[in-house]
Amino acid sequence: MKWGLFGGTFDPIHFGHLRAAQELLEMLGLERVVFIPAFLPPHKTERVISTFEHRLQMVSLAVSDNERFDVSDVEHQRPGKSYSIDTVRYFLNSHDEKIDLYFITGQDAFDAITTWHQWEKLLSLCHFVVMTRLGYETRGLGSILPNDIAVNYVYHDLEDFFQGPQGSRIYFRKTTFLDISSSAIRQDVQQGLSVQYLVPEQVIRFMNEKNLYR
Ligand code: ATP
Ligand code: MG
């Protein structure tokens, strides 16, 4: 089993997220991509974030017409802080079959990987897929990981990935990074502008029903 895990705030989910996930699914031959809204305590951030429940429902609606897309509420089920390593362990332990996990992140997030909780362990538990875009090209691992760790990764030319000592891989893959962001969408809605063609119709209807971002 090859599954992609795609985490984010998804406030709201938009076609940029969906398109990138579809391309990676095909590029890497994934069986499914699981979208995982992050649980963020509302009082802990500088802006007001929609409730976990609303963000989860919007992702659900957005992925409902793609049989290879799924949503998970795992980050809400766990008490306390959510760490990616706990999410990865949850998926590894929840299946009897061997499961290969591909953790999908943007380049900006991956650049800060060494600040993540138990990052070395995390890199050994699953593969990483780093979405790159124009102007943000792969600079190799040397500038991201400490040197003594980066040197243990071997670049495989043919398949274009870096492989770590425990076998897990790091892929840099260029996706169509549609110039859409959740923040711009929230701003449009606030100003009474249409977000049609940026966000799936079902999600727009939900946003209207719940009066989100007004
Ligand atoms: P915000 O504007 O609030 O930061 P966002 O649009 O960046 O929201 P997030 O929920 O923060 O959305 O993103 C989740 C993940 O999706 C991150 O890994 C991010 O790099 C990636 N991502 C964000 N926008 C796009 C896009 N247009 N195309 C592909 N991936 C994207
Ligand atoms: Mg973002």
Q: What would you say about this model in short?
A:
35% of the residues lie in helices and 19% in strands.
Distance between the termini: 42 Å
Helical stretch tally:
9
Strand order within the widest beta sheet:
3-2-1-4-5-8-7-6
What is the total tally of β strands?
8
Element order: H for helix, E for strand: EHEHEHHEHHEHEEEHH
Small-molecule binders: adenosine-5'-triphosphate, magnesium ion
Using the coordinates shown, work out and report the CATH topology. Rossmann fold
| Helix-strand category | alpha/beta
Q: Give the mean pLDDT.
A: 93
CATH class: Alpha Beta
Query: How does CATH name the architecture?
Result: 3-Layer(aba) Sandwich
Low-confidence stretches: none
As a whole number of angstroms, the C-alpha radius of gyration is 18 Å
**Total domain modules:** 1
Task: Describe the fold and architecture.
By secondary structure, the chain is of the alpha/beta class. It has a single domain (2-179), classed as HUPs (Rossmann fold, 3-Layer(aba) Sandwich), CATH 3.40.50.620. Helices cover 35% and strands 19% of the residues. It has 9 helices and 8 strands. It has helices spanning 15-28, 52-63, 74-77, 84-93, 107-111, 119-125, 147-150, 182-190, 201-210; strands at residues 2-8, 32-37, 69-71, 100-106, 127-132, 154-156, 161-163, 169-174. The protein has an 8-stranded mixed beta sheet, with helices on both faces. Helix 2 links the parallel strand 2 (32-37) and strand 3 (69-71). The longest helix is centred in the N-terminal third of the chain and has 14 residues, at 15-28. It is globular. It starts with a strand and ends with a helix. The model has no long low-confidence stretch (mean pLDDT 93). The protein binds adenosine-5'-triphosphate and magnesium ion (MG). The site of adenosine-5'-triphosphate has 17 residues, from helix 1, strand 4 and helix 8.
